[in-house]
Amino acid sequence: MAESIIINKSNSTEEIYKALLPQINSLLNPNEPLISNLSNVTAALKDAFDKISWVGFYFLKEATLFLGPFQGKVACTSIQFGKGVCGIAAEKKETIIVEDVEKFPGHIACDANSKSEIVAPLTENQKVFGVLDIDSYSLAAFNSVDKYYIETLCKTLVKKLDFKLVKQILS
Ligand code: SME
């Protein structure tokens, strides 16, 4: 079946999220493999926003975040818990918005052209098991609107998909 995301890119960020999230929701199929669902989530986000240069998941195994499904250039395959924007978001269990990566001590530059990013933790029963990382080539590309909708998306993913299966991706 052909799948596509229909977005009017001249709309505001909020309007794009409002159109996008229900479409992602209808793409999610808990009866299909986790990796297939998450791959489409990253593609849908990248497709919807020109400001996104890279979007992907990292999943925690012991004290390391490992690269999961993503869209964009090749990226770091592992990040230590508590290191980089991803590791700190995982450690703090909170979304981090970085307006200028050069001003964020410890930022890990997978792509030297990346200028700003937002990282949201994925948690279940208050336990963090991964993050969703979104990067941009523009400064200050993400704000509280992105935070609200990306956190909403993460909650939907945790509710709808069985992340216990993430162990299979990490094996
Ligand atoms: N910038 C991230 C590393 C992951 S890449 O951006 C894909 C960080 O500092 O954790």
- Quick check: average pLDDT? 96
Q: What's the helix-strand series?
A: HHEEEHEEEHH
Q: Mind telling me the CATH class? A: Alpha Beta
Specify the number of helices. 5
CATH superfamily: GAF domain
Our count of domains comes out at: 1
Shape: globular
Distance between the termini: 30 Å
The helix-and-strand class reads alpha+beta
Strand order of the largest sheet: 3-2-1-6-5-4
Topology:
Blueprint (H helix, E strand, L loop, with lengths): L12 H15 L6 H15 L5 E8 L2 E8 L6 E3 L3 H9 L3 E3 L17 E9 L2 E10 L7 H17 L5 H5 L1
Antiparallel strand pairs: 1-2, 1-6, 2-3, 4-5, 5-6
The chain binds methionine sulfoxide.
The site of methionine sulfoxide has 14 residues, from helix 3 and strand 6.
Report on this structure.
This protein has a single domain, classed as GAF domain (Beta-Lactamase, 2-Layer Sandwich), CATH 3.30.450.40. Helix 1 packs antiparallel against helix 2 and helix 1 packs parallel to helix 4. The chain is globular and about 35 Å long. The model has no long low-confidence stretch (mean pLDDT 96). A hairpin with a 6-residue loop joins strand 2 and strand 3. With 171 residues, the chain is an alpha+beta fold. A six-stranded antiparallel sheet has the order 3-2-1-6-5-4, with helices on both faces. The chain binds methionine sulfoxide. The site of methionine sulfoxide has 14 residues, from helix 3 and strand 6.
